[in-house]
Design brief:
It is a single chain. By secondary structure, the protein is mainly α. The chain has a single domain, classed as Transferase(Phosphotransferase) domain 1 (Transferase(Phosphotransferase), domain 1, Orthogonal Bundle). About 40% of the residues lie in helices and about 10% in strands. It contains seven helices and six strands, in the order αβββββααααααβ. Strands 1-4-5 form a three-stranded antiparallel beta sheet. Strand 2 and strand 3 form a beta hairpin. The N and C termini lie close together (about 10 Å).
């Protein structure tokens, strides 16, 4: 939930809009209180009106294989919907314990197509078995319904066309609805009002080599 809230802030509530460009599980860190944080802004881009200011010194294709939105592969413009796609892949990976680069995905099959293939009638095939360990039989139906709704979000976010994907405001609203239904009253969060300290810190990152990436992170709680 914290990752969605953090991306919602970066996309919609910052004084400068931020596109992360490399959202994936290895760029999500856990704080001391187990709060999820978005990390590694080495490939990020800032949106100033209609112009894009990259924080990197390269104009090469941004992102990691398996998490890059398909439109980027054909020269599509950087948009927040690219991050939405990556977020959807992240959700599906967490729920299935399958990386989008798994060797099983060949001949046009990918993670989201595989999940969608089994979604309606055989969802238990794609779910990570660990998610249902120690779940009492009386709660199993409720837990399965909750996981099903999470998978729906993942599939919605990874639609081929950017225009068919939700934005992060819609995703957070949906997640809050799920939390309110299954876990009780949604929590409220306090977000910083200004991102300028982040921008200043990020511009100071040494981009000379891959070993220097990941030296900056921002909390999403």
């Amino acid at each position: 939930m914290e990752i969605a809230e953090g991306m919602e802030y970066l996309h919609h509530y910052c004084s400068v809009q931020v596109i992360h460009c490399d959202l994936k599980p290895s760029n999500v860190l856990l704080g001391d209180d187990m709060t999820s944080c978005i990390a590694d802004f080495g490939l990020s881009s800032l949106i100033f009106g209609n112009s894009v200011d990259s924080l990197t010194s390269t104009n090469a294709l941004k992102g990691s294989i398996g998490y890059i939105a398909p439109e980027y592969g054909i020269g599509g413009q950087l948009t927040t919907k690219g991050d939405v796609y990556s977020y959807g892949i992240l959700i599906l990976e967490l729920l299935t314990k399958r990386r989008p680069t798994d060797d099983m995905f060949i001949e046009g099959m990918n993670l989201q197509k595989w999940v969608e293939l089994h979604f309606l009638n055989r969802i238990s095939i794609v779910l990570d078995n660990c998610l249902l360990l120690d779940v009492p039989e009386s709660d199993r139906s409720m837990v399965m319904e909750c996981l099903t709704q999470f998978i729906e979000i993942g599939l919605f976010c990874t639609r081929e066309s950017p225009s068919e994907r939700p934005d992060m405001i819609e995703i957070v609203d949906r997640l809050n609805t799920i939390r309110g239904t299954f876990l009780g009253t949604p929590k409220t969060i306090q977000l910083p009002v200004d991102i300028s300290p982040f921008i200043d810190n990020t511009r100071g990152i040494n981009m000379s080599g891959p070993g220097n990436r990941g030296s900056s992170s921002t909390s999403t709680s």
